[in-house]
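Input record, target 12 of the design panel.
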């Protein structure tokens, strides 16, 4: 019976390197393939951008989540959040296993930041219950994040059975490390790096991580190990480091 999962989260910065110097989505795909995770949570994923497609000869023909998933992750979903004249971007989840249902909930706190909760259920072979996954990218301002965390807690209490396995991952913009008391304690979640290292991981900027912005929360798993993917080549493929963990189903 399959009981171990390799999970990763990565803010891909819309497929561009730090400071938007060059298109890097092809290198991002190579890095993610090398990471070889079972489920990947992605933020700042471009679904469509007419101006970029016209400007860059190697701009992918498909949406970025489909391009990154390619043949490695047969299942992928995309939640459109920010919509503008030339296109849109949002969150995505890539999976080796069947995604049986999904929904993107708008949790925008104000009109200047469009945010969403991308929630799906994944069928893992021989598991009695589906795995619930929620990909998040919270706002830059404390008040907005507080409202968004309340929406996240409400959604979990309403739609995720207490005994069902759950993973929440993404960019929480939580440099003051306030998420734990507001989220983990209320829902019985464990942040994987807090479990292995005592604190959330330093993930930004990727060249020399200082701020602890990204998180992976789990419920119903034993955490085996964790890793921050920074330095070469990751520092050239986004302004965020990727995070990953191996977890074992209890």
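The sequence produced for target 12 reads:
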């Amino acid at each position: 019976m399959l009981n171990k999962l390799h999970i990763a989260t990565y803010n891909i910065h819309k497929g561009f390197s730090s400071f938007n110097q060059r298109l890097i989505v092809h290198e991002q795909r190579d890095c993610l393939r090398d990471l070889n995770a079972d489920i990947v949570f992605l933020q700042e994923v471009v679904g469509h951008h007419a101006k970029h497609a016209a400007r860059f000869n190697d701009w992918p023909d498909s949406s970025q989540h489909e391009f990154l998933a390619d043949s490695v992750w047969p299942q992928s979903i995309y939640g459109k959040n920010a919509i503008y004249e030339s296109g849109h971007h949002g969150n995505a989840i890539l999976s080796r296993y069947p995604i049986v249902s999904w929904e993107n909930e708008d949790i925008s706190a104000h009109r200047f930041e469009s945010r969403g909760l991308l929630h799906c259920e994944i069928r893992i072979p021989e598991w009695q219950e589906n795995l619930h996954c929620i990909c998040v990218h919270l706002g830059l301002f404390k008040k907005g994040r507080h409202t968004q965390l309340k929406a996240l807690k409400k959604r979990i209490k309403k739609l995720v059975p207490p005994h069902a396995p759950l993973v929440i991952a993404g960019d929480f913009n939580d440099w003051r490390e306030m998420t734990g008391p507001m989220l983990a304690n209320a829902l019985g979640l464990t942040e994987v790096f807090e479990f292995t290292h005592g604190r959330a991981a330093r993930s930004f900027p990727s060249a020399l991580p200082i701020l602890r912005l990204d998180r992976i929360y789990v419920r119903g798993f034993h955490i085996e190990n964790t890793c921050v993917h920074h330095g070469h080549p990751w520092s050239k493929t986004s302004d965020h480091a990727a995070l990953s963990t191996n977890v074992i189903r209890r």
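The chain has a mean pLDDT of 93.
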